[in-house]
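ok here's Oxygen sensor histidine kinase NreB:
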Amino acid sequence: MVTKMSVEQPLWHALTGYRLLAVGYAITIYVWALDRFRHPVPGAVYLAVLTVWTLATLSQVSSARRCTKRFLAVDVTLAVGGILLSVYVDGAGAVNPTIPTIWVAGPVLAFALKGGWRWGAGASVLVGIANILEQGDVTRPTLHNVLLVCVASIGIGYVVEVVRASERTLAQALQIEAATRERERLARDIHDSVLQVLAMVQRRGTALGGEAAELGRMAGEQEVALRTLVSSGLVPAQGTAPAHEQEGPPSAEAARGGSGGRSRILAPVRRRPGRGAGAEDGGNGRTGRAGVTGSGDASGGPECDLRPLLSRHAGAGVTFVEPGAPVLLPEHAARELAAAVSAALDNVRQHAKGPAGGPAHAWISLEDEPDGVLVTVRDDGPGLSEGRLEAAEAEGRLGVALSIRGRMRELGGGAELLSVPGQGTEVELRLPKAAAGRSARS
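and the structure:
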């Protein structure tokens, strides 16, 4: 949950405090010099009205919404009236400050906070003219006070305008981020369900022939249209092709049209014992090793053991290695991590062939580390050719980008993929426990 905090609001609170202190200061100065005024009674009445007005309008200066134009007009009129009244009350000029003294800066600052530096400059000029009329001449102290109020109001008004523009930009960025995250979530769900079914119908229909082939062709067309719709706004769509045409190596043009994801191709290296591969996802596999770390947190919830969620994938073609103790994670985090593993296994089943030409064998390894959970999915398939992932993302095939990397990014973890052509692919999914803990606490 994001709590909105206005940077402008503390300035209004400061103005409220300033007005209270200023009216107290004006009363103190007036009482201290009471015997030197020529007509003290009108000045005392004015200060009484000023005190009541200040106390009664505290709520008006608590925010820009409450500070109306009518209030500002009355406020600055009261300030100018007090300055001009000082000519009559202090006819001999025995007391230098005007009756409201520093209180007159309050209305000017209110103008600046409400309407920006232009409003503040206008109000300060109006108060400055009143001060010059009260003095009867442009003296150095008067000019100094006028310029001081003018500079302060313009500076604060400009700061307020910058703050408001920054808050609007931040609000728009948060809306875009929320919309993008929701779009990615929907795209993952579509990829894990509808697109997989359409691709299966297309392959089976082509294999059966006859009317089934026509059904498969229609399913392929719908798959391409849906992938284009899902990928629009997420990656630059540069053309699509039916699924059966994308299983082979991509063209050089498609490889150059990648999405610019952070990945690199590893030169062939000696294969580590027991290290196999993850998988290629419908043209969305990752060539090379790419680390993606997100800052999002999984939503909170009760903890559950991750082992049963992964053990259901074990079978003739999948070997699952698990620790002896439960691996506890918040329920949502555990299910999303298991879904990412399922997406990696789908890639193995659909696109990876074993050394003997049959289906590739996959291994799932679950490790409960002190600071996080590591799940490794590897296979003994042929690996990924150079540029395959970039071309797949450009074609709108976002299995790895959304179903694997997107899920891990939102959980606060990361996904790393290692592939060497001819030596299989490996997917490492790492989720820090701190990220899962923060989400559970929230």
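+1. Residues 233-299 have pLDDT under 50 and may be disordered.
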